């Protein structure tokens, strides 16, 4: 593949990849037939949207995209048992994972039950003491005091723990990769069961819970009764979908679009408090869900009390919401400090092994289990390789991994567990967790590297920068940005567009904040545009632009809207540059 504009090695060391002749042709045809702006058509063409479906794609309808819940195995059984428990005023417990998806899933059920005049017991395991998923003591204790236990965002591989829940029915609503056999639950609703078609494999657990509530509503109506308004709950589904890095395609995209609209109404105290403590002065976007709100909800499960995030999302008490949000914000700051230390040590270790191996991994004594997943993400982004980071404690270590596109990490981790090299492990394509004995660590990582290499992970070069096309400063308007945003939300599986402003002259460049670079550039013809490069001041990119000496550059990044002092203007979020 030829480098776009001839840039094979940019100032950040990346090759630029353009849209290709076929996408350019389709974008041109779409622009002519629809009258939509050419940059928007370039993005739609790159996302694979057919010319005839461009207009409906810009207004995704949940009604049209929502799958039939009954297309998932065990769904009718799960919803039927749930409704029987509700109508019979049975004792219900919710066992949830400690991340955003688990907390949102639990909050959906708690909110729905509250509106029906019922309460449920919430149980979220401690990450350090109990680890991920149901465990035998907790399930036995819950079963002794409840009639129905609903496991959300976990449970599909927990055979022994589910068997320990004697005396209670167990329903599992999950999305993690299933094994060859299922645990002894009354129902296992999971689009990633091995006997599923895979058509809904992109759903997060909260989306599976939402579909169960859709089916529950259908069964209630058949009995002449009505349930709560489900559309008002899509804010939680949106948060979970983005924070769990589920691909933003099909119904997921509709969930997030509709959920963001609901979030803008500021009706859920937990999300309002979260927005306020994060100092959001605009309605949340998909970016805010993934990088501002999600990390704060996660902070409780990472280094604090595991149930803080779920309690925040479920509460209807404004004072409690504020208190929980402030605590989570504080924990998130502590998490960042812990993460920085582990990241530095893990990077040094990974560099010593070589950053171009099929697997980048590191393991250290006492590394906090709550941050190893984030550090694995950082290593993956830096190296464009699957990454595993493990915290060792005594005779074993607990770790998390993150993968790159086209490499199924979850399946490889599961294979390692089946081969006996791991104590346990599971996950999905892009993320996985594992527990490994100290004396099998090296052998397990060597075998995992071999499995990932077979999938091509060792052949990946430095991450390419993929670009949608060329744009000129005069064309980058607020109106264009708003039109392009209609093709979103952007995120996993649907990356947002990047454009190149070619042969630009830099008017000024200055440092802002601790390490950011602010600049203004133009082509001398169509106007000027402001740009911000976050954290770039001390980097080769920042230094080259600061000392430009009148040289001209190709500038690449994403265009957005800057709101300041009541004014809105287009702005480039600069990610890369190359001498023109």
From TrEMBL:
Keywords, alphabetical: Exonuclease, Hydrolase, Nuclease
Residues in DHHA1 domain copies: 361-452
GO terms of molecular function: 5'-3' exonuclease activity; nucleic acid binding
Organism: Roseovarius litoreus
Presence of keyword Hydrolase: yes
An example Gene Ontology biological process: DNA repair
Lineage, highest ranks first: Bacteria, Pseudomonadati, Pseudomonadota, Alphaproteobacteria, Rhodobacterales
Residue runs in coiled coils: none
Nuclease in keyword set: yes
Domain called DDH: residue spans: 91-241
Protein name: Single-stranded-DNA-specific exonuclease RecJ
Domain RecJ OB stretches: 468-576
Superkingdom field: Bacteria
Annotated family: Belongs to the RecJ family.
């Amino acid at each position: 593949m030829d480098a776009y504009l001839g840039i094979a090695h940019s100032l950040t060391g990346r090759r630029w990849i353009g849209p290709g002749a076929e996408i350019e042709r389709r974008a041109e045809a779409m622009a002519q037939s629809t009258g939509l702006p050419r940059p928007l058509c370039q993005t739609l063409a790159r996302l694979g949207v057919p010319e005839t479906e461009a207009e409906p794609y810009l207004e995704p309808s949940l009604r049209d995209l929502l799958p039939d819940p009954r297309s998932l195995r065990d769904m009718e059984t799960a919803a039927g048992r749930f409704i029987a428990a509700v109508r019979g005023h049975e004792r219900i417990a919710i066992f949830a994972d400690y991340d955003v998806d688990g907390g949102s899933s639990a909050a959906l059920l708690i909110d729905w039950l509250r509106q029906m005049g019922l309460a449920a017991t919430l149980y979220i395991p401690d990450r350090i003491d109990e680890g991920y998923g149901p465990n035998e003591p907790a399930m036995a204790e819950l079963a002794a005091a409840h009639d129905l236990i609903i496991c959300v965002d976990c449970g599909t591989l927990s055979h022994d723990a589910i068997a320990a829940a004697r005396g209670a029915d167990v329903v599992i609503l999950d999305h993690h990769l299933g094994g060859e056999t299922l645990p002894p639950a009354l129902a296992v609703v999971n689009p990633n069961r091995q006997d599923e078609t895979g058509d809904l494999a992109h759903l997060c657990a909260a989306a599976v819970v939402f579909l169960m509530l859709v089916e529950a509503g259908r069964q209630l109506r058949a009995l002449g009764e009505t349930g709560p308004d489900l559309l008002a709950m899509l804010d939680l589904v949106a948060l979970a979908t983005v924070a769990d890095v589920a691909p933003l395609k099909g119904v997921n995209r509709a969930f997030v679009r509709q959920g963001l609209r609901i979030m803008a109404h500021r009706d859920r105290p937990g999300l309002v408090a979260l927005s306020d403590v994060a100092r959001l002065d605009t309605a949340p976007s998909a970016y805010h869900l993934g990088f501002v709100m999600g990390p704060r909800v996660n902070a409780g499960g990472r280094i604090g009390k595991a149930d803080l995030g779920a309690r925040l999302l479920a509460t209807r008490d404004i004072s409690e919401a504020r208190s929980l949000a402030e605590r989570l914000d504080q924990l998130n700051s502590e998490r960042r400090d812990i993460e920085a230390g582990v990241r530095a040590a893990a990077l040094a270790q990974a560099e010593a092994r070589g950053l171009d191996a099929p697997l980048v991994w590191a393991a250290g004594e006492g590394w906090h289990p709550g941050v190893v997943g984030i550090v694995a993400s950082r290593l993956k982004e830096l190296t464009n390789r699957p990454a595993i980071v493990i915290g060792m404690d005594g005779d074993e270590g607990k770790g998390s991994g993150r993968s790159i596109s086209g490499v199924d990490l979850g399946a490889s981790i599961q294979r390692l567990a089946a081969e006996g090299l791991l104590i346990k492990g599971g996950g999905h394509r892009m993320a996985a967790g594992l527990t490994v004995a100290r004396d099998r660590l090296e052998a397990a990582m060597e075998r995992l590297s071999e499995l990932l290499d077979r999938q091509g992970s060792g052949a990946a070069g430095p991450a390419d920068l993929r670009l949608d096309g060329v744009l000129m400063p005069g064309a980058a308007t607020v109106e264009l940005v708003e039109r392009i945003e209609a093709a979103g939300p952007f995120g996993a599986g649907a990356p947002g567009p990047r454009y190149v402003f070619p042969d630009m002259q830099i008017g000024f460049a200055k440092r802002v904040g601790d390490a950011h670079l602010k600049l203004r550039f133009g082509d001398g013809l169509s106007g000027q545009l402001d740009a911000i490069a976050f954290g770039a001041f001390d980097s080769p990119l920042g230094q080259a632009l600061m000392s430009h000496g009148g040289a001209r550059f190709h500038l690449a990044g994403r265009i957005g809207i800057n709101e300041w002092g009541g004014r809105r203007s287009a702005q480039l979020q600069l990610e890369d540059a190359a001498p023109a």
